[in-house]
Design a protein that fits this description.
The complex is a heterodimer of chains A (113) and B (112). By secondary structure, chain A is an all-beta fold. Chain A has no helices and eleven strands. Helices cover 0% and strands 55% of the residues of chain A. In chain B, the strands form two sheets. Chain B has a five-stranded mixed beta sheet with strand order 1-9-8-3-4, with no helix packed on it. The mean pLDDT of chain B is 92. Classes of the chains: A mainly beta (113), B mainly beta (112).
Chain lengths: 113, 112
């Protein structure tokens, strides 16, 4: 299994531009999570999906952030318009329902200049 | 939500055992104790989890106190590659606490 695959690994964009981060969860996992990590705030849960349905998006910072999961093998996190304070490492994770461990991707390092 | 308390940092010598403590005095009866670690420039990695009994796997052992108010992650023989931030997390089987909420963890330094 290739694990959770995120793309791109690095993204540098100008303020005001749209940014789309992508995630392919592990086949057979039915829960998917988007996290953001910064030095100041640590790892924060942004949103999670169960069976492709958004369950809790209370961690999404504001309307500029949106996430979709059109099918069991793909999810996107979009920021429009991006701002410098969005600079962070964004992680995607997946798990099977229940109490199994999460598998995290390698993350996307986003820099907004 | 039930919270955990961990030391900010710990040091260990290479090839010696490491005991990473975690306090969770407000744990509920159904909360599982999960441990993850994050190596530099990588995503968090699952280490081990348990409910009441001690657990062992190829990476580590988890010792859970009888009253479940604390637990200890044991690395039997630390290597330089074990230097990471270790997170102790309580996870409920249902409700809003099903997702993992990360605290600040313990930064483990392994000295050669």
């Amino acid at each position: 299994d290739a694990g959770v695959i995120q793309s791109p690994r690095h993204e540098v964009t100008e303020m005001g531009q749209e940014v789309t981060l992508r995630c392919k969860p592990i086949s057979g996992h039915n829960s998917l999570f988007w996290y953001r990590q910064t030095m100041m705030r640590g790892l924060e849960l942004l949103i999670y999906f169960n069976n492709n349905v958004p369950i809790d998006d209370s961690g999404m910072p504001e309307d500029r952030f949106s996430a979709k999961m059109p099918n069991a093998s793909f999810s996107t996190l979009k920021i429009q318009p991006s701002e410098p304070r969005d600079s962070a490492v964004y992680f995607c994770a997946s798990t099977r329902d229940g109490l199994y461990g999460y598998t995290f991707g390698s993350g996307t390092r986003l820099t907004v200049v | 939500d039930a919270k955990t308390t961990q030391p900010n940092s710990m040091e260990s010598n290479e090839e010696e055992p490491v005991h990473l403590p975690c306090n969770h005095s407000t744990i509920s009866g159904t909360d599982y104790i999960h441990w993850y670690r994050q190596l530099p420039s990588q995503g968090p990695e699952y280490v081990i989890h348990g409910l009441t009994s001690n657990v062992n796997n190829r990476m580590a052992s988890l010792a859970i106190a009888e009253d479940r108010k604390s637990s200890t992650l044991i690395l039997h023989r630390a290597t330089l590659r074990d230097a990471a931030v270790y997170y102790c997390i309580l996870r409920s089987p249902s409700g809003s606490a099903r997702q993992l909420t990360f605290g600040s963890g313990t930064q483990l330094t392994v000295l050669p």
